[in-house]
Amino acid sequence: MTTYKLYNSFKDLPEAWSVLSKNDLFLQESYLKAMELASPTNISWYYVGVFKEQKLVGIAIIQRVELYLKDMFREHTDGFFIRSLKDILSIFLRGNMLVVGNMTHTGQHGLYHTQEISKDDFCDAIIRTLNDLRLKIKNENHKKIRVILWKDYFSDQVPFGNSLVYTKEQLNRVEVQPNMILKVKDHWKTFDDYLTDLNKKYLRRYRTALKKAKNIRKEELDIEQVRTLNDTMYQYYKTVSDNASFNTFILPKNHFISLKTELKDAFKVYGYFLDNELIGFYTLLINKSQLETYFLGYHPNYQYTYQLYLNMLYDMAAYGINQGFQNVVYARTAMEIKSSVGAEALPMVVFMKHTNSLLNSLFRQIFKLMNPTKKWEERHPFKH
Q1: Mean pLDDT, the chain, integer
Q2: Which residues face 327 on adjacent strands?
Q3: What pLDDT, on a 0 to 100 scale, did the predictor assign at position 77?
């Protein structure tokens, strides 16, 4: 017999959770604790345990995301028509959404189950939990869930064993921006091996970026330095975040401190200094064989002069290769420049529906307007 239980905090999770989550940092209690202590204010966290004969055989993260106009659209240079269109689309999406997965990071980091339960039985338990949670939120918070989202699967993956499951649930399969991943080649034992594989054009590009940053001191920051520099880091993060045309959340000010405190060496923070002044930073998450790039920020006055962002991408690649990771996960956005350092675009899809049947029938077309296809040129930096 398959049963399920909904948990409201990492503190309530069963002991067996740590066993099932051991291969994904984003499911582990240390990460969940850090996020609960420093989550965007519009995101609430829930956890699902799926049991078979009282044994935990599957786990999932569900987030309630409250969408507001000011958080979704932060572009200030749009013309009247685009602003009007965004206002209409925001009304369509604005409200409460339930997400199976993690809105704060690219990739499928919200589900795991053992072979002791089938995909369909596991997903059926998650669907039943979603229905229970919708009712709970309606009764306790007087809020109606408008959108259900199963987040971030590679295009050749389906979270459901039988496609009839998402047909029955009236889910729309929608393509989203790709996940940019640098696959570390077997013969890359050091970053020098990577550089050897670059063709002349991109080797010059690397050397130019390195030369521009020659006066920059790069340093890994410990927890005390993160605390000391947190205000500046947050300001730089907001500078980058506010330039995005569409966002569903804003990190709280204590976010980087919380992750460094709870994850310790699994959360890396690197600062870029000019004359002892922090002018930029980037963060990394150590997720088994995957090096996950995380949030970054920089002073806008120094970005172009010192090619800060490009240097960060190279430094992330260098860390991943030198430390023996299988992949450097650059996530989505800025596809072209990430492609220029060797990251490949892996297509991703989400499964989503509006709880209003009429609006759900229009969802695929509406979402295309919300998430337009980005035209960009794929780069080929390596020798053939």
Answers
A1: 91
A2: 183, 290
A3: 47
